[in-house]
Amino acid sequence: MNLMKNFSLEGKVALVTGAAYGIGFAIAEALAKAGAKIAFNCRRQEHLDEALAAYKAKGIDAVGYICDVTDEEGVKRMVADIAERLGAVDILVNNAGIIKRIPMHEMSVEEFREVIDIDLTAAFIMAKAVIPSMIERGGGKIINICSMMSELGRETVSAYASAKGGLKMLTRNIASEYGEYNIQCNAIGPGYIATPQTAPLRERDKDGRRHPFDSFIVAKTPAARWGTPEDLMGPAVFLASKASDFINGHVLYVDGGILAYIGKQPK
Ligand code: NAP
Ligand code: GCO
């Protein structure tokens, strides 16, 4: 048996939500390099246009959609169009997500609901849209992008942590309900990754001093650095491939060791 063939995604169709840039773009690039045909979506036309050019520059003929993952009818239309153009979705990566950093007692219910809607309910909507076809075709892969906040809380991220904690259990429940159809549903739990979403936590002050949270995270990470979207490429290919067919309901933390570490003793 050629073990490395188990990591190939040749002939597969992958849909990565929110993959105009950041973690989603890196994951889509990785799946493409492993042989998959790529579809992605986002909400903003300028993001779509820039992303299509960026994929093309990397030799990836991605298909892109303006589609809000909370819009069930729009999602159904997008999945049907992908099936027409590329083939049915074999690999779904629920990556699209937002965060609102607001003290809970100051956060409005609408703000809380918006985060839950995008970061949790949308994963339900997306999975519902692809599972019937996966069952018909003998299986598929669903990868949800969880977070350190699937395990830990911190100030100002109550909605996000609630969504990401729920996403961990949605991952386990899809694995439980659809494992018999050869559908594996797992999650990747990135640590602190340098993307636009975390840019505010890494801004330097006018004197060039590092943001306190930046220093805090580096001290909390055994790898002593922020992660990069590229750190997630290998784990994504693994969970999207045959190599992980007997892994189901698992959250693979790609965090440089944060969850294992009490943190560096202050000097
Ligand atoms: P990002 O830089 O903010 O990118 C988010 C992407 O999602 C953008 O392409 C955005 O494009 C899209 N998006 C947002 N809401 C959407 C919606 N309703 N429908 C469709 N697309 C939507 O985020 P990131 O850092 O790459 O994070 C990606 C995922 O990883 C998120 O789920 C995040 O929670 C998770 N994560 C991030 C980190 C980290 O440290 N960065 C760590 C753990 C987990 P549009 O605005 O054009 O829609
Ligand atoms: C925050 C960060 C984190 C990261 C990520 C960590 O404000 O704490 O944005 O939530 O995005 O989820 O895994």
Could you please describe the fold and organization of this structure?
The protein has 2 domains: 9-191 and 228-258, NAD(P)-binding Rossmann-like Domain (Rossmann fold, 3-Layer(aba) Sandwich), CATH 3.40.50; 194-226, no CATH class. It is built from 7 helices and 7 strands. It has helices at 22-33, 45-57, 72-85, 109-136, 158-178, 212-220, 233-240, and strands at residues 13-17, 37-42, 63-66, 91-94, 140-145, 183-190, 251-254. The protein has a 7-stranded parallel beta sheet with strand order 3-2-1-4-5-6-7, sandwiched between helices. The mean pLDDT is 97. Residues 99, 101, 147-149, 154, 157, 160, 190-192, 197-198, 201 line the site of D-gluconic acid.
In terms of per-residue confidence, which ranges show pLDDT below 50 for 5 or more consecutive residues? none
Structural class, judged by helices and strands? alpha/beta
Largest sheet: 7 strands, parallel
Strand content: 5-15%
CATH class of the largest domain: Alpha Beta
Distance between the termini: 52 Å
List the helices and strands and how they pair.
Elements: E1 13-17, H1 22-33, E2 37-42, H2 45-57, E3 63-66, H3 72-85, E4 91-94, H4 109-136, E5 140-145, H5 158-178, E6 183-190, H6 212-220, H7 233-240, E7 251-254
Parallel strand pairs: 1-2, 1-4, 2-3, 4-5, 5-6, 6-7
Helix pairs in contact: 1-7, 3-4, 4-5
Bound molecules: NADP nicotinamide-adenine-dinucleotide phosphate and D-gluconic acid.
